[in-house]
Write a structure and sequence with these properties.
Radius of gyration: 27 Å
Number of domains: 2
Shape: elongated
Largest sheet: 9 strands, mixed
CATH architecture of the largest domain: Alpha-Beta Complex
CATH class of the largest domain: Alpha Beta
Number of helices: 9
CATH topology of the largest domain: Spore Coat Polysaccharide Biosynthesis Protein SpsA, Chain A
Structural class: alpha/beta
Strand content: 25-35%
Length: 404
């Protein structure tokens, strides 16, 4: 099979988002939209990626700068999708393989669709292959035009469709795979013959068809996978769909989510078998929860929270950047921040770790089999030895701990 690279378009300003943040950095279930596209490429076997950046490029590069398989390509002037791809010419002009082209604002992309696109492209020995979608409401999307034999004849943008073409439900959600040299030959010939004076990738596709090269369109994209994010409403819609996927994955792995619509779980969270997530629980960040735990209702887990096995975290309890050992119980209205807690510790109602003194965040260390009474305040930094008993309502500083 031919070597493959991917070009990901991520240079847009997105005026409709009304944002100062680069659009592709807006998060869906805790992760930037661009991260999902990168993952889909990698899972489909495409390692080398050329990401086109423009507006807010420093922020995008900083977020993903540790990835050594990404080449950052700046589009200094936004002159359309065709122009964006042309910005990669110095890197790819002589590349004799296949090039995927995807959009960085499509977080609902799935690796299996990318794999299907690649496989179809190879099987057909096509110059270009599109993965298309069938939408009940195709408004806003370019329509796929086929002849009577099902061969693709081109793409007509929504605004240019005649009444008959507007009834076509097969659309172009911008999943492309090209023979690279054919792609750049076509791009060198396109002209900006439109109102915006922009160079469109679809114009290159039309030139490839007109030159008699084989172009294939495979209907492989589910309707929800075709959703791109151009405004806050679409961002919210994508988040809801992704949240269903996150929860479905966890439930298939043996996690009980009592009330999925009233639960929010970060896409990066790891949750063990037979753990129960109660309603109105919010789990945000790279959270790890073991097996046979019970979390919620109304629990809040933040970045860095690790719950070992058989932990019970109850109503209005918050955990941040802390590790709770096996068998810990924190059932009511507690805050646990920047702490390492041993096994079988009981944390009474309203007990908290006072981890911030106004200038510095301090850590708490709590041993095994400790009893922390209701309303106790542990003033960090503090080290509570195993087996210790702290009375209800205590305000405990490091100097108050008597070690035997």
């Amino acid at each position: 099979m031919a070597e493959k690279v991917a070009i990901i378009l991520a240079a847009g300003v997105s005026s409709r988002m009304n944002t100062k943040l680069p659009k592709v950095l807006h998060e869906v279930c805790g992760r930037p939209m661009l991260a999902y596209v990168i993952d889909a490429c990698r899972s489909a076997g495409v390692e080398k990626m050329y990401i086109i950046v423009g507006y807010g490029k420093e922020q995008v590069i900083e977020r993903f700068g540790d990835d050594k398989n990404i080449v950052w390509v700046e589009q200094k002037e936004r002159k359309g999708t065709g122009h964006a791809v042309l910005c990669c010419k110095e890197y790819l002009e002589n590349f004799d393989g296949d090039t995927l082209i995807l959009c960085g604002d499509m977080p609902l992309i799935r690796s299996e669709i990318v794999k299907t696109l690649i496989e179809k492209h190879g099987q057909e020995s096509a110059a270009a292959t599109l993965a298309t979608a069938i939408l009940d409401n195709p408004k806003g999307y370019g329509r796929i035009i086929r002849d009577g034999y099902g061969n693709i004849q081109g793409i007509v943008e929504d605004g240019d469709c005649n009444p008959q073409q507007k009834t076509i439900k097969e659309v172009n959600p911008s999943y492309y795979c090209f023979k690279n040299k054919t792609l750049f030959e076509a791009l060198s010939k396109i002209t900006p013959n439109n109102v915006k004076n922009e160079y469109y990738l679809t114009d290159a596709l039309h030139l490839i068809i007109a030159a008699g090269h084989k172009v294939v369109a495979v209907t492989a994209v589910a309707a929800e996978d075709a959703i791109g994010v151009n405004n806050r409403q679409q961002l919210s819609e994508a988040g809801k769909i992704m949240q269903r996927r996150v929860q479905d994955r966890l439930m298939k792995a043996g996690v009980t989510i009592v009330d999925p619509p009233n639960t929010w779980i970060d896409a990066r969270a790891e949750i063990g078998q037979d753990t129960v997530i109660e309603p109105f629980t919010y789990i945000h960040g790279q959270i790890k929860i073991g097996s046979n735990c019970r979390v919620g209702p109304f629990a809040y887990l933040r970045e860095g929270a690790i719950l070992k096995d058989d932990v019970v975290l109850g109503v209005f309890t918050e955990v941040k950047n802390s590790t709770l050992g096996d068998g810990v119980r924190a059932r009511h209205h507690s805050f646990i921040g920047d702490a390492v807690i041993g096994k079988n510790v009981n944390i009474g109602a309203g007990a908290i770790t006072a981890n911030y003194d106004g200038k510095t965040i301090h850590k708490s260390q709590i041993g095994d089999d400790v009893y922390i009474g209701p309303g106790t305040i542990l003033v960090a930094p503090i080290d509570v030895p195993s087996g210790y008993n702290l009375k209800a309502g205590s305000v405990v500083n490091a100097g108050d701990i008597k070690k035997s």
